[in-house]
C-alpha cells in the first residue's frame, strides 16, 4: 500500500501523507498536529493513532517526541441507547413510588 493511502487516524480519516506534509510545513509537536489535523479528536481519543503519529513525527524530524500524550483525554465514548435511558427513568420513578407506598 502506498504512503498516500495509509490511514493513520481512522476516526478522522487522516493518511500518513497528510501527517508528513503537516510536519514538513512546521507543525512539529503533537498539540500542533492535533489542532491542524484533528488527530486524536475522534471517538477513540487518539488511542489508536497517537503511537503511530509519534513514530511518524520521530521519523520525519529525527527527534524524540517529548509529549507522552495529548494534554486532554476525555472519558471513553460509549453509545447509550435512548431506550436504556428511558428505562432508567421509569425504574427510578417506580422505586420512588414504592418508597412512597411504604
Ligand atoms: S484513530 Fe485517531 S482519533 Fe481515533
Structure description:
The chain has 102 residues and is mostly helical. It has a domain at 1-67: Orthogonal Bundle (Arc Repressor Mutant, subunit A). Helix content is 49%, strand content 5%. It is built from four helices and two strands, in the order E-E-H-H-H-H. The chain has helices spanning 16-25, 30-37, 50-61, 82-101; strands at residues 7-9, 14-15. A two-stranded antiparallel ribbon has the order 1-2. Strand 1 and strand 2 form a beta hairpin. Helix 1 packs across helix 3. The longest helix is centred in the C-terminal third of the chain and has 20 residues, at 82-101. The relative contact order is 0.13. The model has no long low-confidence stretch (mean pLDDT 83). The structure holds FE2/S2 (inorganic) cluster (FES). FE2/S2 (inorganic) cluster is lined by residues 9-12, 39-40, 42, 44, 46, 48-49. Residues 9-12, 39-40, 42, 44, 46, 48-49 line the site of FE2/S2 (inorganic) cluster.
Approximate shape: elongated
Number of helices in the DSSP assignment = 4
Bound molecules: FE2/S2 (inorganic) cluster
Annotated CATH homologous superfamily of one domain? BFD-like [2Fe-2S]-binding domain
What is the mean pLDDT?
Answer: 83
Detail the poorly predicted runs: none
CATH class of one domain: Mainly Alpha
What portion of residues belong to β-strands? Answer: under 5%
- Helical fraction equals 40-55%
Amino acid at each position: 500500500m502506498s504512503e498516500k493511502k495509509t490511514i493513520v487516524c481512522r476516526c478522522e480519516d487522516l493518511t500518513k501523507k497528510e501527517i508528513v506534509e503537516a510536519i514538513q510545513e512546521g507543525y512539529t509537536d503533537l498539540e500542533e498536529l492535533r489542532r491542524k489535523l484533528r488527530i486524536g479528536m475522534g471517538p477513540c481519543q487518539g488511542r489508536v493513532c497517537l503511537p503511530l503519529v509519534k513514530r511518524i513525527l520521530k521519523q520525519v524530524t529525527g527527534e524524540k517526541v517529548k509529549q507522552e500524550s495529548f494534554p486532554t483525554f476525555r472519558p471513553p465514548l460509549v453509545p447509550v441507547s435512548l431506550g436504556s435511558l428511558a428505562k432508567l427513568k421509569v425504574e427510578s420513578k417506580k422505586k420512588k413510588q414504592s418508597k412512597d407506598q411504604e
